[in-house]
Amino acid sequence: MYRIIAGKWKAKKISAPKNFDVRPTTDFAKEALFSILQNKFEFEFCSVLDLFCGIGSVSLEFASRDCKDVTSVDSNAKHTGFISSTAAELEMALQIRTMRADVYEFIRKNKTQKTYDIIFADPPFETEQNKYEEIINGIFKNDFLKETGLFVLEHQSKMKFENEHLQDTRKYGNVSFSFFSKNAK
């Protein structure tokens, strides 16, 4: 169970089926993240890519805050189906586009040739460091981010990154968000 923190559906609780093996971003961490993002972007005019979207905690938060262009990617068909049905129920179906795909493959190919203002990725917590590096490098190599865009990677706080695009890392308990941009320095 998670809740939408702000926007049109503020305080709306979303309950996923019990057999879903997901770890939604905590309310505490999500509040902090969206506070940072709100100071940098007007969500109404942003295009957002949510990778490893799980049951849509972040995607639905963006849509609730008037973001009109959210693409949610996950390899689990049940997860993308859940997001689609929840978005339809909350009258967000025109804002959120779900795609069932292996995220690593999606990043390698960038078939849509689309760039985004905000990219959020929350790989499974047990993901190895080299797979995180693959995500980071793929985002920049395959031109997913707009010039003024921001890529946010959620990860275990014990994990550290050294990358020319790394701007900042914020820690919230055992979860951290690392922020990357084209012009980090």
Residue fraction in strands: 25-35%
Query: What does the largest sheet look like?
Result: 7 strands, mixed
Indicate the percent of residues in helices: 25-40%
The whole-number mean of residue pLDDT values reads 91
Are there runs of 5+ residues with pLDDT below 50, and where?
A: none
User: How far apart lie the N and C ends?
Assistant: 38 Å
Tell the overall outline: globular
Tally the helices.
5
Give the helices and strands, then pairings.
Elements: E1 2-3, E2 13-14, H1 27-38, E3 47-51, H2 57-64, E4 69-74, H3 77-89, E5 96-100, H4 103-109, E6 116-121, H5 129-141, E7 145-156, E8 166-172, E9 175-180
Parallel strand pairs: 3-4, 3-6, 4-5, 6-7
Antiparallel strand pairs: 1-2, 7-9, 8-9
Describe this structure in words.
The chain is an alpha/beta fold. The protein has helices at residues 27-38, 57-64, 77-89, 103-109, 129-141; strands spanning 2-3, 13-14, 47-51, 69-74, 96-100, 116-121, 145-156, 166-172, 175-180. It has a 7-stranded mixed β-sheet with strand order 5-4-3-6-7-9-8, sandwiched between helices. Strands 1-2 form a two-stranded antiparallel ribbon. The longest helix has 13 residues, at 77-89.
